[in-house]
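Moderator note: this is an archived Q&A kept for reference. The question asked for a predicted structure of one protein chain; the sequence and the answer are reproduced below.
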Amino acid sequence: MQTPAEENYLKALWYLEAISREVSLQALAHRVGATPGAVTIMVKKLADKGYIYYRPYYGVTLTEKGRNIALRVIRRHRIWETFISEKLGYTGEKVHELAEHLEHLCDDEFTERLYAYLGYPAADPHGDEIPSAGPVAYPLSRLQVGQKGRICGYGTHPGLATALHLLRLQEGDVIEVLGSFPLDSALWVRCGEREMVIPPTLAENLFIDIV
């Protein structure tokens, strides 16, 4: 998965692309309130993850993958703004400020439950359209026996990347749940021709698009 900072950058790029298809680092720095050096570091990181295209001295554009993530974040933000305004009675800038924090604290499953609770609104309190959901990411642990999912991200704990490397798993791989391993709620899964056990902590933090 993405860090809150990464999500904020992708969201900022989505807004800026409405003005210019290729966004300058200067414009991005102004939008996110960061120094040019910090923006350069983050842009390179996002490019390495396949979220953006970066041309030094020209600018950046979102990849399809990055654009989908940005839209998910914007969707979460506008759904939270609707909840905060309609159900909690907040008004003014406070609505936006609270949504800025809450948009990073829930997964897609929670967001869709909240959206259903609100009655599937078409727009937020400001009249801005709530984008469609697109594919919803779930933790691998939520899949039932026989279900398959494509790895689309993972949590921020530094050990998760190491665990995926040891298991020779990466984003884009399709995993099928074969059953529960009879110890510690681990999962028995198949990836390609390989079968393996996924520890419960990894299963909770490995995010899947169901296929």
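Archived answer notes: The mean pLDDT is 90.
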